[in-house]
Fumarate hydratase subunit alpha/L(+)-tartrate dehydratase alpha subunit (Roseococcus suduntuyensis), 300 residues
Amino acid sequence: MSVITTPDKLRVTPDAIEEAAKLLYIRALKILPDDIKQGFFRLDSTETDGLAKSVLATMIENIAVAERTENLLCQDTGIPIFNVQIGRDVEVDGWALKQAIARGTERATREHPLRSSVVHPITRVNAHTSCGAHVPVIHVDFVETPRTLRLEMIPKGSGSENGSFLQMLIPADGLSGVKRFVVDAAIKAGGKVCPPTILGVGVGGTSDLCMHLAKVAATRPLGSVCADAEGAKLEVELSEAVNSLGIGPQGLGGDSTAFAVHVEVAATHITMNPVAVNVQCHSARRASATFTPEGVVVGF
């Protein structure tokens, strides 16, 4: 993967994006980020239920075996999601970037090979490319960092994605209404979302922005904190509340229901307060490539 630099520009070629998309999809499915591994050991050290500790130990061993044998962490290769952050003074063809990500996704699926989990929503026909209408899902944002482009890949499995909830609250519902909705969502999801989870919560915005924020929150690294002070406070309160439910690993009981609850907020309309929940299962997979004038750094 190469980049082309000038004294004042970073140009990232479609070929470099395609190769990165392919490698990141495979890497995300095989190697769990360090923060999630540390999260497992932290939960194991505080878990008081014997069965829950046994389940956590099995999960930890599964991670080790998958990485040792270069196998997938989970058979669900998920819906491929790519988050692109483009810094200042970066030259990239947007349409070519979109096509390159799709080609990289298809190559990863066919050349590895990976199970394609993507089908047509009506006919259920599987093209075996992990691609389809509007898939891969691609989100583009712009950041201040000069001459930097970051490509993040997140394979979103259906078990956790099926645990998505949205409610259009009104201001009269207050903060207690937000908390009640999130806790109720965790109870409804139960063991179906393969806990321990990262529970992502979006508050504010519009219905679509709120759900997007919930997914951003769910896929944030463990240890990160909401940039909004009130959101950060809510993260602590909700994490304690969710882990007091007794759902536990795989829904079999225990203290370890969630690694954390993450919150993201957006300004909203004076007459509404949407709240969304999106779940990342215990196999909280992601991988990234950062393009700079110095080269390409692959990580999480």
User: Anything to note?
Assistant: Residues 158-280 form one domain. The CA atoms of residues 82 and 138 lie 5 Å apart. The longest helix spans residues 50-68. The mean pLDDT is 96.
